[in-house]
Amino acid sequence: MAEDASVTKLSIEFWLNKALQWGQITTSESQQDVCLHLPELQEFLLQIYGALKHMNCTTAVREFPLIGQLLGRLCWNPFVIGHDECQKTLMWCLCCLYSGEPQNPVELKANSWIQSSLCHLLSLSGLGNSEADMNNFISALGFTSSDYYSKVVENVVLSLVTELKRNQFNGFNSQQSMSSRVTSLSLRCVPLITLLDITPLLEALLCYHGDGSQEVLHSEFLEVVNEAILQKKISLSESAVQQLWLRHLPSAEKAVLRNFESLMSGQARSLEEMECLIKTSLLPQAACHPAIFRIADEIFKNALLETDGALEVMTVMQVFTQCFVQAYRENNKQQRFPLKVYFPQIPYSLVMASLKRPSDLPASGLNQHLNHIVELLKATAEATGIGSCGDLFESWFLFIHFGEWADIAAEQLVVSEAESSDALLWLLAFYYNPSDENQQRTRTMVEARSVCNHLAILSRTAAISVADLQAAVSSKTNIRQPGTEHLVMHLLVSYLLFTTSGHMIAREFIAHFAATGSEIPEVSGLLTCTAHRLSQAGVKYQQTVKLVNDLLQILKYGV
Q1: Most buried of the four, 33, 212, 270, 527, by CB within 10 Å?
Q2: DSSP string covering 497-513, please?
């Protein structure tokens, strides 16, 4: 590594000597020497860029003391910057040295010099290299040469933004067509992406649409802007970000994957934090356009299939759906797309039933609405013929989006003796294992019914023990299907939270469970989802939310 650095320093000295010689250009021989060395210089600049992009300004100056002098001389050599690739790479190198948050006088001074150099390169890239063009442009802006370099970026950006909005460029390489000029401008912005002054131009480019059907912004520009957004190096308006993802769907896919990975890695410790991460990503707002929604939905679908319906994936998907639905309902700035566009393969009646907010229904109406959902799902599950399996999966996938209804079904099963209990058991059995055939689902429901009956007996018992509760939910067969295990665990957690006897034994049972149980992540997930749901219902469930938080502390710390 040290040897590579030594070679680089020697190379910098070599090219600095060349730049000093070229600075005294007076003969055609010296001009020819510049042109002869341009390919080698371009290769060297790419090597320098590769090293600089991993350093900050202070480190770069310490590692390569002559780097500033070399880049500065090259920026003002007309033969060097007349070579498009050299000019672009010089911009990249300068941007690597630019400090977004300067920490010392060296970085402050470097920023001022870098800005002047970039102004120089940017103005030339737009106006041509003749001195007359430069003087005319400076005069048109109303500046003198003494203050030009401190103001030129702001004015060039403003000028370009104005011309973009007018759908014309009056002086920007007028020989080119409008679309090719916009493409060229977007590419020239690539090395300047993280400069704060360039933000209005980035937004204007992203919101610009030409007359043709082909994309006019360079793909490299779109990719670099997206990466800068995801790394939080730049902050753009919500509309600009949405336009970026709509005109470059691979960027939208990358944004969804990056957000999904961060949520699955445990960066969010609660559903509130998960919700905050999702909203600040701007993805729910962008998903109000069906094209973005379908990208996110396809990623969730693949994740569910690859993990056999992992509860962690379900949870992320359900929180994302809640954020999307909220954004959709608040989206009054433009005409909404009809809801059936987001779920084109699902019966519209099932979509509307799933989207219904539980808070909009009276307590007495919850069972009736759950029965309605069951009827709609059963119609799909019991259908036969070509495509019925696909329809069944799509209906289950829709129901997973709105897992809140499964939570309410489990709650209703332990707090009431409703006539619809068979329907609610069917709903939970379907939720945890949609691929079960009727016979297998019936066995699951029989076992779940037995657990419900035992829990009902315990709820009427004056005092119960941990052993009593364990006996009530233990398997009466040698082996339980995974879906049945999840269903029983869901009923157990609902019993602890929504019955008086459950409240009395909850802390002791969870403490015992934390010491011996292997399904802690599952129980923790169920508790977290329940707390999130109840906290939105107001003071009615304040005591239950406090209990949930206590139980989560016991699971996490054992106390």
Answers
A1: 527
A2: HHSHHHHHHHHHHHHHH
- Radius of gyration of the chain from Cα atoms? 32
pLDDT of residue 388: 58
Q: Using 50, 70 and 90 to split pLDDT, how confident is the model at 277?
A: very high
pTM higher than 0.70 for the full model? yes
What tokens were used for 140? 């048109």
Say how far apart CA 268 and CA 265 lie, in whole Å.
Answer: 8
Residue (of 93, 204, 115) closest to 157 by Cα position: 204
Amino acid at 557: Y
Q: CB under 8 Å to 325, separation ≥6 — which residues?
A: 355
CB atoms within 10 A of CB 220: 11
User: Which tens digits make up the pLDDT trace of 201-214?
Assistant: 999 999 988 766 78
Look at residue 114 and tell me whether its pLDDT is greater than 60: yes
- How confident is the model over 239-255, as pLDDT tens digits? 999 999 999 999 999 99
Please state whether 101 falls in left (phi above 0), alpha (psi between -120 and 50) or beta.
beta
The letter for the amino acid at 254 is K
Q: How far apart are CA 263 and CA 261, in angstroms?
A: 5
Contact predicate 163/172, CB 8 Å: yes
User: What are the b/e assignments for 174-193, b being 16+ CB within 10 Å?
Assistant: eeeebeebbbbbbbbbbbbb
Instruction: For residue 368, count other CB atoms closer than 10 A to its CB.
Output: 12
Nearest CA-CA partner of 503 in 535, 532, 471, 541: 541
Average pLDDT over every residue of 153-157: 68
Sign of CA dihedral 264, 270, 275, 276: negative
Q: Mean pLDDT across the chain, nearest whole number?
A: 82
* Side chain identity, residue 552: L
How confident is the model over 304-331, as pLDDT tens digits?
Answer: 999 888 888 999 999 999 999 999 988 7
Using alpha carbons, list the distances in angstroms from residue 497 to 312, 410, 500. 21, 11, 8
Residue 233's nearest CA partner among 262, 195, 202, 267 is 195
Task: List helix spans (H) across 84-218.
Answer: 84-97, 105-127, 131-141, 145-165, 178-188, 199-206
CB 97 within 8 A of CB 49: no
Nearest to 354 by CA among 335, 380, 336, 383: 380
Q: Please state, in angstroms and rounded to a whole number, the distance separating the CA atoms of residues 340 and 360.
A: 21
Residue carrying the six token digits 């939905």:
297
Nearest to 293 by CA among 333, 253, 254, 347: 253
- Rounded to the nearest 5 degrees, what angle is found at the Cα of 166, between the Cα atoms of 164 and 171? 65
Phi, psi of 241, deg, nearest 5: -65, -40
DSSP state of 557: H
CA distances (Å), origin 557, targets 110, 279, 437, 554: 50, 30, 41, 5
Under DSSP, the state recorded for 65 is T
CA distance linking residue 33 with residue 507, whole number of Å:
82
